[in-house]
Specification:
Elements (H helix, E strand, L loop, with lengths): L9 H31 L5 H28 L8 H7 L11 H28 L3 H24 L2
Helix pairs in contact: 1-2, 1-3, 1-4, 2-5, 4-5
Length: 156
Amino acid sequence: MSKIDIGIGAKDRETIAEGLKCLLADSYTLYLQTHYFHWNVTGPLFRDLHLMFEEQYTELADAVDDIAERIRTLDVQAPGTYKAFAKLSSIEEVEEVPAAEKMVEILTQGHEQVVKTCRDVLKAAQGGDDESTIALVSDRMSVHEKTAWMLRAMSK
């Protein structure tokens, strides 16, 4: 492969990619949680939550691909193992099957955490004058802020 020359220095590309790796790990962990909850939700809100979680994990599946491809565009290898994601993610895994209301709370916190991770990546991208990453991360922030709002609206 030829040498990369996209107007972003190697050090900035590496810094931005490291932040994107954390965003990828958070997004993938949130994807897994959302899918897990989709499969296991029960109770009076079953249908609404089952369908909502499906919409959310489907959106997240596309997002992880976009984030990983941006890392590769910066000429850095994207992580792709559970072990790597566990090290990089700031979202804790859930092993038990919580009640539906707790699922909503956990996912709300997860989306809010992804927004915080996006803010960190955004700073690095702005510092490196990386408009493509800025656009990607800004779009991700909007999605996660709106999803967190919708989940909060489901709470009592």
